Amino acid sequence: MREINRTIDWRLEIASDQKKLASKLLEFRNLIEYCPICTSTDTLVYVVVFEYPYHKCNFCGHIYCSTPPNNNSIENLYKSSSIKSGQSKIYLDESTFSKRVDFIARPKVDFISKVFESFCNDSFGKWLDIGSGAGEILFAAKDMGWDPLGVESDTEEFNFARQKGLNVINSFFSSHNCQNIVRGAKVISLFNVIEHISNPIDFLKIISNNMTSGLLVFEVPRHPSMSSLSIELFPEMACRHIYPPEHLHIFTDNSASILLQKTGFTLIGEWFFGQDFFDLITSAAANQGLKPFSIWDSVANLSPKIQNVIDHEGFADTMILVALRDDK
Rounded to two decimals, what is the model's pTM? Predict the structure, then answer.
């Protein structure tokens, strides 16, 4: 986290940007009265962030934004230069791209490649990354011998990736273009995508109906986690995990399992990890207006060790799931 410039000041800046963006879309919202995953109406407010309530389903545990921006607002969020998420500052930072490839993308591609080799009697081939962003996954996959193709709706991130020599389509992925894009893919990945989509079940059904072989991979924020607690304690510092207007869903192991069952997939691999501890101490320090000093630096340096304990005890804030379609 320190290597990619995550500091107390960064947390203050990105949370402030996120709050401003969320306020722009307050008047363009829908109302969701049941869990989008299991359809239960037995839900309660878990936390309110920037005036957006997040409900928790008492049946499957899923956390979801109950007043999300309408579909037009969501689409404009990713294609408009005038409505921009603070997250774009992260992904379009040339100075940290190679670090993000090495620290974040390569371990994920390596993990998925090993699952592929274990379950698929096939050679590497087309890797389709939907919502490919600035192209870190594509870059790492290409280095590891895959033939990567990205789909990215954000024009700035698309252009950034193309300048890296990556093969990317500038488009929203939908039922209208999915057949041609999905054809022949041996891996279809969605890193930090499904939590942004109002109806994850319908979205995965589009992919399932057009897959012919290979693996489906997705990474989503996870609950219960220490980062969930961090947002409960410091909602004004929200800029990842539970935060509007972008993250509409936070998955539990149970709700992710229901999502796979309803869309025709069988789980074959999983990886749980997070940045919970660093999130918590950075949010707390930013909330109190602290500046980095020797004790904070020393505690921050313990993050990898403490995070290992958090992950082991089941409170990691992120999960990657790898699945096969049921008839494959």
Answer: 0.92
